[in-house]
Design goal:
The chain is an alpha+beta fold. Helix content is 18%, strand content 49%.
Amino acid sequence: MLFKEKHMKLKQILTASTIFMGLSFSANWKADTSNSKINFTVKGIFGKVHGSFTGLQAKIHFNEKDLSASSMSASVDAKTVSTGVSLRNSDLRTKEEWFNTEKYPRIDFKSKKFEKTGSGYKVLGDLTIKGITKPVEIPFTFTDKDGSGVFKGQFTIPRAEFNLGKPGGSVGSEITIMLNIPAKNTGS
């Protein structure tokens, strides 16, 4: 009887360890879209303009132990651009010189490669705004605790390369984008 009890305990420990290891290294993450933050800043005539986007849709396959097998595709609803000023929001959504969201309803990102860095990671991929696709590099950190993770990153894009606004003028030439994407591990 003693042997049988020890064998059962060992089997339970091994089963629990296998489940835990599977969660720790599994790579599929479901973004918490309602709590995700996609913010931006750009220099304006009276200081920095702060804004945000919502409507994130993402497929995240990220494994810290196997970056070569990691991938990410993400998209946001361009119509959700918000700066806290209704007239500016309307211009950003409707004018061809800005997002023209009727013609270009989504902003998309698709990864090509993940790399480890000294302070975290970086993902290299293609960003598409207004039908214009350009390569970008997004440095980010990732924290994982008990099957919940947070991806945090920040990067800058030259707005002229995406045909956003008129060249020169009172709007800064670079847009800084900040990402804070909580996610749940959904397994392999």
